Amino acid sequence: MKRALLSAAIAAGLAVSAAAIAQDSPQKPDAMKPAQSQQAAPSSIHGTITSVDNTAKSFVVKDDTSGKEVTVYWDSSTKVNGDLKVGSAVTLHDLDDARAQASERFIALQDVLFALERSQVGLMRATGDLEKWALGTP
Fold this sequence. Notes:
Helices cover 44% and strands 19% of the residues.
């Protein structure tokens, strides 16, 4: 009986944790989404370099999805992989957005781990093993 309860609790805990980790981000209802004109700039841009100005430390990227041209400026703290040449394909990322997403996912993982530990303690309490574990007796 104890093994069946333990197996069921572990299976439930794994199912809950897998579902929470697989969820990228909660979906907002359409009424709560900001209007198209109020949305923030995209966190990444995929496109082709159309011009480079090394003296002004800038280059222009034509976005593949929208067709708009975006001017990007860099400084000594900007991380560049490869050469900035006209005609090169580039992908630009917003580091702050990536850090925020990683933080949100880490918090979701911590929530799932807490729920799993809580269910394990509940199972040990139900089987009478909690007192043995807490007192360190075999």
